[in-house]
Design brief:
The protein has 169 residues and is α+β, with helices and mostly antiparallel strands. The protein folds into two domains: 37 residues; 123 residues, Sandwich (Jelly Rolls). Strands 1, 2, 4, 7 and 9 form a five-stranded antiparallel β-sheet that branches. A four-stranded antiparallel β-sheet has the order 3-8-5-6, with no helix packed on it. A hairpin with a 2-residue loop joins strand 5 and strand 6. The radius of gyration is 24 Å and the shape is elongated.
Length: 169
Protein backbone atom coordinates (compact mmCIF):
# COMPACT_ATOMS: atom_id res chain seq x y z
CA UNK A 1 0.00 0.00 0.00
CA UNK A 2 2.77 2.56 0.72
CA UNK A 3 4.07 2.21 -2.88
CA UNK A 4 0.57 2.95 -4.22
CA UNK A 5 0.26 6.07 -2.10
CA UNK A 6 3.67 7.25 -3.20
CA UNK A 7 2.88 6.57 -6.86
CA UNK A 8 -0.42 8.51 -6.60
CA UNK A 9 1.39 11.32 -4.82
CA UNK A 10 4.04 11.42 -7.55
CA UNK A 11 1.37 11.41 -10.27
CA UNK A 12 -0.48 14.28 -8.54
CA UNK A 13 2.73 16.26 -8.28
CA UNK A 14 3.50 15.57 -11.92
CA UNK A 15 0.03 16.76 -12.94
CA UNK A 16 0.49 19.98 -10.88
CA UNK A 17 3.88 20.52 -12.49
CA UNK A 18 2.40 20.07 -15.99
CA UNK A 19 -0.31 22.66 -15.16
CA UNK A 20 2.35 25.04 -13.82
CA UNK A 21 4.46 24.64 -16.97
CA UNK A 22 1.39 25.21 -19.19
CA UNK A 23 0.42 28.29 -17.16
CA UNK A 24 4.00 29.60 -17.35
CA UNK A 25 4.07 29.07 -21.12
CA UNK A 26 0.80 30.99 -21.50
CA UNK A 27 2.11 33.82 -19.32
CA UNK A 28 5.40 33.88 -21.27
CA UNK A 29 3.54 34.06 -24.59
CA UNK A 30 1.40 36.92 -23.27
CA UNK A 31 4.50 38.73 -22.01
CA UNK A 32 6.26 38.26 -25.35
CA UNK A 33 3.26 39.74 -27.16
CA UNK A 34 3.15 42.65 -24.70
CA UNK A 35 6.90 43.39 -25.04
CA UNK A 36 6.65 43.17 -28.82
CA UNK A 37 4.24 46.12 -28.73
CA UNK A 38 5.25 47.96 -25.51
CA UNK A 39 8.52 49.14 -24.01
CA UNK A 40 9.67 48.17 -20.49
CA UNK A 41 7.59 51.00 -18.98
CA UNK A 42 4.44 49.68 -20.64
CA UNK A 43 4.27 52.44 -23.27
CA UNK A 44 3.16 51.38 -26.77
CA UNK A 45 5.85 51.18 -29.43
CA UNK A 46 6.18 50.16 -33.03
CA UNK A 47 8.87 49.58 -35.62
CA UNK A 48 8.87 49.14 -39.39
CA UNK A 49 11.62 48.52 -41.91
CA UNK A 50 11.58 49.31 -45.60
CA UNK A 51 10.76 46.29 -47.74
CA UNK A 52 12.18 47.61 -51.03
CA UNK A 53 14.07 50.61 -52.42
CA UNK A 54 12.30 53.84 -53.39
CA UNK A 55 13.74 55.93 -56.23
CA UNK A 56 13.02 59.51 -55.25
CA UNK A 57 10.97 61.91 -57.34
CA UNK A 58 9.72 65.42 -56.61
CA UNK A 59 6.49 63.88 -55.29
CA UNK A 60 6.36 62.91 -51.62
CA UNK A 61 6.06 59.11 -51.67
CA UNK A 62 5.76 56.37 -49.03
CA UNK A 63 8.88 54.26 -48.51
CA UNK A 64 7.62 50.70 -49.23
CA UNK A 65 7.03 48.66 -46.07
CA UNK A 66 8.05 51.44 -43.69
CA UNK A 67 4.66 51.91 -42.08
CA UNK A 68 3.31 50.86 -38.69
CA UNK A 69 0.07 51.38 -36.76
CA UNK A 70 0.59 52.10 -33.07
CA UNK A 71 -2.51 52.51 -30.88
CA UNK A 72 -2.75 55.06 -28.09
CA UNK A 73 -5.15 54.75 -25.17
CA UNK A 74 -4.49 58.33 -24.04
CA UNK A 75 -6.40 61.40 -25.11
CA UNK A 76 -3.15 63.37 -25.43
CA UNK A 77 0.08 61.41 -25.86
CA UNK A 78 3.62 62.29 -26.92
CA UNK A 79 5.67 60.06 -29.22
CA UNK A 80 9.43 59.92 -29.64
CA UNK A 81 10.01 59.06 -33.31
CA UNK A 82 13.12 58.07 -35.25
CA UNK A 83 13.05 58.08 -39.03
CA UNK A 84 16.19 56.57 -40.55
CA UNK A 85 16.82 56.90 -44.30
CA UNK A 86 19.52 55.11 -46.29
CA UNK A 87 20.02 57.59 -49.16
CA UNK A 88 22.08 56.43 -52.15
CA UNK A 89 22.95 59.13 -54.73
CA UNK A 90 23.98 57.49 -58.03
CA UNK A 91 23.74 60.58 -60.31
CA UNK A 92 24.43 64.07 -59.02
CA UNK A 93 22.23 67.11 -59.20
CA UNK A 94 21.58 70.35 -57.34
CA UNK A 95 18.90 68.81 -55.16
CA UNK A 96 18.29 67.69 -51.59
CA UNK A 97 16.99 64.23 -50.67
CA UNK A 98 14.42 64.66 -47.91
CA UNK A 99 13.12 62.01 -45.52
CA UNK A 100 9.94 62.73 -43.58
CA UNK A 101 8.08 60.91 -40.82
CA UNK A 102 4.32 61.14 -41.32
CA UNK A 103 1.61 60.41 -38.74
CA UNK A 104 -1.99 60.12 -39.96
CA UNK A 105 -1.17 62.25 -43.01
CA UNK A 106 0.72 65.01 -41.16
CA UNK A 107 4.49 65.44 -41.42
CA UNK A 108 6.41 65.50 -38.14
CA UNK A 109 8.45 68.67 -37.44
CA UNK A 110 11.93 67.57 -38.58
CA UNK A 111 13.32 66.21 -41.85
CA UNK A 112 16.30 64.01 -42.65
CA UNK A 113 18.27 65.84 -45.35
CA UNK A 114 21.02 64.66 -47.71
CA UNK A 115 22.79 66.65 -50.44
CA UNK A 116 22.73 65.14 -53.93
CA UNK A 117 25.76 67.14 -55.18
CA UNK A 118 28.15 64.17 -54.87
CA UNK A 119 27.72 60.47 -55.71
CA UNK A 120 27.57 59.02 -52.20
CA UNK A 121 25.56 56.88 -49.85
CA UNK A 122 24.71 57.97 -46.31
CA UNK A 123 22.29 56.93 -43.62
CA UNK A 124 20.64 60.04 -42.21
CA UNK A 125 17.92 60.37 -39.61
CA UNK A 126 15.42 62.61 -37.96
CA UNK A 127 14.35 62.35 -34.34
CA UNK A 128 11.26 64.20 -33.16
CA UNK A 129 8.94 64.57 -30.20
CA UNK A 130 5.46 64.49 -31.72
CA UNK A 131 2.39 65.46 -29.67
CA UNK A 132 -0.67 63.39 -30.59
CA UNK A 133 -3.71 65.57 -30.18
CA UNK A 134 -6.19 63.30 -31.98
CA UNK A 135 -7.25 61.46 -28.84
CA UNK A 136 -7.15 57.75 -28.14
CA UNK A 137 -7.06 55.45 -31.15
CA UNK A 138 -4.81 54.09 -33.86
CA UNK A 139 -2.06 56.24 -35.35
CA UNK A 140 -0.47 55.29 -38.69
CA UNK A 141 3.22 56.21 -38.90
CA UNK A 142 5.11 56.19 -42.22
CA UNK A 143 8.46 57.02 -43.74
CA UNK A 144 8.06 59.22 -46.81
CA UNK A 145 10.69 60.72 -49.09
CA UNK A 146 11.24 63.03 -52.06
CA UNK A 147 13.93 65.12 -53.72
CA UNK A 148 13.75 68.89 -53.96
CA UNK A 149 14.37 69.15 -57.73
CA UNK A 150 13.99 66.96 -60.82
CA UNK A 151 17.74 66.42 -61.21
CA UNK A 152 20.07 63.61 -60.22
CA UNK A 153 19.16 60.14 -59.06
CA UNK A 154 18.75 59.09 -55.44
CA UNK A 155 17.08 56.14 -53.77
CA UNK A 156 15.96 55.48 -50.23
CA UNK A 157 17.48 52.01 -49.89
CA UNK A 158 15.67 49.30 -47.96
CA UNK A 159 18.95 48.15 -46.38
CA UNK A 160 18.96 50.60 -43.46
CA UNK A 161 15.73 52.62 -43.79
CA UNK A 162 13.55 52.14 -40.72
CA UNK A 163 11.00 53.79 -38.47
CA UNK A 164 10.80 53.52 -34.67
CA UNK A 165 7.95 54.98 -32.62
CA UNK A 166 7.75 54.99 -28.80
CA UNK A 167 4.96 56.71 -26.87
CA UNK A 168 6.54 58.35 -23.84
CA UNK A 169 3.54 60.04 -22.26
Amino acid sequence: MPETVRLESVLERLARLERTVADSAAVSAARMLHYATHNSLGHPRGEAVASSDLTLSTTLTDVPGASVVVPSSRTAAVALVWGVFDFDVTATGAAIAQGIVDVNGVASPGNALHSMLVVTRHTVMTCDLVPLSGGAGNYTWKLRALKSAAVGTCAAKATHSRLVVVYID
